[in-house]
Amino acid sequence: MSATEEARLHYPFGSQLPALGEVMEVAPGVRWLRMGLPFALDHINLWLLRDVADDGTPGWAIVDCGIDNPATRAAWQQVFANGLDGLPVVRVIVTHMHPDHIGLAHWLCEHWACRLWISTTDWQAARMASGNLHAFGGAQTVNFFRRHGLTDAATLALLDDRGGYYAQMVPAVPAQHRRLLDGQTLRIGEHSWTTIAGYGHAPEHMALHCAALGVLISGDMVLPRISTNVSVIDLEPEADPLTLYLQSLRLYLPLADNTLVLPSHGKPFVGLHERISQLQQHHEDRFVEVVAACAEAPQSAADLLPVLFKRALDAHQTTFAMGESVAHLHALLYQGRLRKVATDDGVIRFGTP
To answer: What are the residue boundaries of the Metallo-beta-lactamase domain, all occurrences included (predicted)?
Structure first.
């Protein structure tokens, strides 16, 4: 994101951030908290919404949870002591199944004896991944990326070793859930919130919009400074998630441009339509670059990493970059702007028609 693009967004809270274990009110009955992550993307934003239980007990709804590790549990305990005004948590809402969002859902639901609310698609995906040591890593993932031209030994070794990577951060998923569906109206405390399903980043991501407050909890679908990771993974090797993601972005355009966007990473901002336009242009620019490279000579996803990512990538970052590279190639393939090219070495490459 360029400085010029960022200047077109407004950050109403400036450089203010809630300290670890503390909360900060961003709208009436909406509180912001942050938890650490052991990655280059070192934080996740979580949200508290004033709510009322079915029996009329006042309390809070949690939106997203953080990963399951001792530091995050300790930070939540601090929030329980100082950030809830002495009220209980009455439900846990999870936008999608990625570890930083659902990791501690089992612990929070058990601690507060409350229900998990999530799309059934993402609940099932999380249950599968948490109990499968070969999900999102291991030999199948290694073979998938090798087919797409990856030869870097450090990255392949990392992938091979992390078959249980998801389960380390999500050791359990609640056995029961309340299903979220697209366009559903949830009464959370004094306000109605509408769910907006999004695809491409996760199986069935759910954002939450409150028209009365002018607030959108965007999850990972709309982020202010970075583009959302949209990857093809070995579990669905012919997928076209980037097309699904770009189609999903259009669903936010009917919302008011002065909506306060509460993203999972980065700071709350205003300028939803501008940011969507930036994200759409970002991917179209990458499409043009990929087609130009493939017109010169057939390219694999690994060949295209320097085209799509101008910075140096470590092994961890390369695993995500490879998935994004395949996603760009598949979108162009299904648009008819690229074609698969037969090779003798078994590597999948793409050229122009």
So the answer is: 43-265
Taking Cα atoms as reference points, which of 220, 187, 216 lies closest to residue 61? 187
Q: Is the dihedral of CA 25, 30, 33, 37 positive or negative?
A: negative
| pLDDT tens digit at each of 353 positions of the chain | 677 788 899 999 999 999 989 999 999 999 999 999 988 788 999 999 999 999 999 999 999 999 999 999 999 999 999 999 999 999 999 999 999 999 999 999 999 999 999 999 999 999 999 987 666 678 888 999 999 999 988 888 888 877 778 899 999 999 999 999 999 999 999 999 999 999 999 999 999 999 999 999 999 999 998 999 999 999 899 999 999 999 999 999 999 999 999 999 999 999 999 999 999 999 999 999 999 999 999 999 999 999 999 888 887 788 889 999 999 999 999 999 999 998 889 999 999 99
Domains and CATH numbers, the chain: 3-272 (3.60.15.10)
Scored b (16 or more CB within 10 A) or e, 125-144 reads bbbebbeeeebbbbebbbeb
Distance CA 95, CA 101 (A): 7
Distance CA 129, CA 147 (A): 23
Q: Has this prediction a pTM greater than 0.85?
A: yes
